[in-house]
Amino acid sequence: MTEEKAGPNYEEAERRVGATPEQRLRWLVEFAQEDLASLSRGRALDLDDEILAFTRAGLPGDQGGLALGGNYLNREADFVRQLQQRWRDNLTALLDRGEFSYTATANYILGRTSDGSIEAGISADTEPAFFIAVFRLLAHEGVRVRRCDAKGCGRIFVGPPRQLFCGSRCSQRVRTARFRRQHREAVSDMRHAAYARRQRSKLGLKVKVARRPRRQTT
Ligand SMILES: [Zn+2]
């Protein structure tokens, strides 16, 4: 099995991807949502390294990660964009339709050493190797991936299973909206009382202040 050569900044890319499955899951979800519209050559090369680091990382207890096939090197923006698009499509399918499916060709290789112990490895082209790594990570950690519940957000994030929103901005926004909804009637009553007070002081105490019909709440 041949190992591909990584770029000069590979160790930094490995650090950005992270050491634990949870950190790598966060990297993976961020990668799906990174804006690649104006991807610089430098960032494309960095992402190439990050994709390689992610793909090789494997899971705890693995003998070794995946080995990539020979077409890894010298890939840039187009490859990164295409891989991101496919990954995003798959992630969206999993979250919104409940299913992730990717057909991969890979060589599953076992080596038997002279003392009888077995060495295992998987070898594949970059894209199938990436998706095999994605599949394995999501099979273990996918329960933490979800879409933000806040209206109009839809951001995908990694969090504990009970977390509903991508961050404090969205959860605050939803709390405020719920508070407003629940207190709309109370606020409306208070406003009417204040209005009635003003009218009474303007027109004398015996005025009965008619009330507009309540607006339909949506
Ligand atoms: Zn959100």
H/E topology pattern: HHHEHEEHEEH
The distinct bound ligands, ions and cofactors come out as: zinc ion
The 3D shape can be described as elongated
State the low-pLDDT regions, or none: none
The class by helix and strand makeup works out as mainly alpha
- How helix-rich are the residues, as a percent range? 40-55%
Instruction: Specify the number of helices.
Output: 6
Count of DSSP strands:
5
The biggest sheet amounts to: 3 strands, mixed
How much strand content do the residues show?
A: 5-15%
Average pLDDT reading:
85
- Taking the alpha carbons of the first and last residues, their distance comes to 62 Å
Write up this protein.
It is a single chain. The protein has about 220 residues and is mainly alpha-helical. It has 2 domains: about 10-160, no CATH class; about 165-218, no CATH class. About 50% of the residues lie in helices and about 10% in strands. The chain contains 6 helices and 5 strands. It has helices spanning about 10-15, 20-35, 40-55, 75-95, 125-140, 170-205, and strands at about 65-70, 105-110, 120-125, 145, 155-160. Strands 1-3-2 form a 3-stranded mixed β-sheet. Strand 2 and strand 3 form a beta hairpin. Helix 3 (about 40-55) packs across helix 5. The protein is elongated and about 105 Å long. Bound molecules: zinc ion. Zinc ion binds near residues 150, 153, 155, 165 and 170.
